[in-house]
Amino acid sequence: MNILQDWPEPIVRVQSLSNSGISKIPDRYVKPPLERPSINPFSVDGNIPIIDLEGLSGEDENFRANILNQVSVACREWGFFQVLKHGVSPQLMDRAREVWREFFHLPMEAKQLYANSPKTYEGYGSRLGVEKGAILDWSDYYFLHYLPCTLKDYNKWPALPVNCREVMDEYGKQVVELCGRLMKVLSINLGLPEDRLQNAFGGENIGACLRVNFYPKCPQPDVALGLSSHSDPGGLTLLLPDDHVTGLQVRKDDNWITVKPASHAFIVNIGDQIQVLSNAIYRSVEHRVTVNPVEERVSLAFFYNPKSDIPIAPIEELVSPTRPALYTPMTFDEYRLFMRMRGPRGKLQVESRKSHK
Ligand code: OGA
Ligand code: NI
User: Fold this and answer.
1) d(CA 226, CA 15)
2) Edge-to-edge order in the sheet of strand 287-289
3) Which of 171, 255, 290, 305 has the fewest CB atoms within 10 Å, i.e. is most exposed?
4) Which residues form the Fe2OG dioxygenase domain (predicted)?
5) Are 152 and 145 in contact (CB under 8 A)?
6) pTM, two decimal places
7) Is the shortest distance between the CB of 116 and ligand 1 below 6 Å?
8) Would you say the CB of residue 236 lies under 6 angstroms from ligand 1?
């Protein structure tokens, strides 16, 4: 059975809908009342923690311990934080975002060359999930693989803008390096040897992919979402948000907090695979994206994932008689099928994976 052959309905580019100048959005994009951004739960003021990583690799032990502690608190209490002085070149971050803004402003024919299918999701897409009649999100995206090398295929990366491949190659390299450093911090904070979490991800053979999100202007931002509430299915996500338009909201208890991005920061969040590996010491957190009537928004979500064909289960050292394993093993290949079939569904998937003992 291959249910992921093709989309159940003809694809409509949200950007084209937005550009057509409609003042009322099609019913397919209207969320049921309880999911609308204006209603429930409330949006409150505040921000996720901001952590300066300079000094993480330095000599000063106290300074380093302080950074580790800030990350530890952020992982436990938020599952989301921003990092500054993280080692990725600020100019490269700007260039990466600009390259993709340019891509989405190419004529539709140029983008359609990369139209994706639900089989691998690689390329230019406009929906997540293949359920016929589903209510859709107000966004288009581009999805590509960066690692493992066997899945990295330049033919599936845009040829235009001309420097896209080159910029994204270097961007991927620097972001993967940062992810490797963060993995060590998380591992140490879990009381494990620094390489333990990375090894549980499959060591050298991890996966990494990029989803560039494009949120066109929306004439009815009160009833639509750019991306419905979800937790990220993978390991660790590093998000490069738009530099002048907000939209990402993170769930904190019963509220939604709108993230205010710091200049040249990455937004880091814990995905479901780290929730599973850490036996829920760290939890992935629900987030969503609102849309804007006058501004479009671009973001780059880089997903650092475990090797896709190894069983992922709570790390042995984090399992004890008083804290038994909360999850049964599953490969990431198998796990990600849920999102690929059903689209974003809050924390439904990871919660339903609990082992029942
Ligand atoms: C994602 C995501 C947030 C954003 O791509 O998984 O949560 O701000 N993106 O675009
Ligand atoms: Ni996400």
Assistant:
1) 12
2) 42-44, 255-258, 248-252, 287-289, 227-230
3) 255
4) 205-306
5) yes
6) 0.97
7) no
8) no
User: Cα of 270 to ligand 1 centre, how many Å?
Assistant: 13
Please say whether the beta carbons of 14 and 139 come within 8 A: yes
CA of 58 to the centre of ligand 1 (A): 32
* Section 334-343 average pLDDT: 91
Closest CA to 49 of 24, 17, 84, 15: 84
* Selected residue with higher pLDDT from 135 and 352: 135
Q: Which residues surround ligand 2, an ion (CB under 5 A)?
A: 232
For ligand 1, is residue 127 a contact (CB within 6 Å)?
no
pLDDT tens digits for range 167-180: 999 999 999 999 99
Instruction: Please state the atom number of ligand 1 nearest to the C-alpha of residue 242.
Output: 8
The predicted model gives 145-156 an average pLDDT of 97
Within 13 Å and on the Cβ side, how many CA atoms surround 117?
6
What whole-number distance in Å separates Cα of residue 272 and Cα of residue 216? 28
* CA 325 from centre of chain: 26
Query: Can you state the percent helix, strand and coil of the chain, rounding each to 5?
Result: 30, 20, 50
Q: Angle at which helices 61-77 and 164-189 pack, to 10 degrees?
A: 90
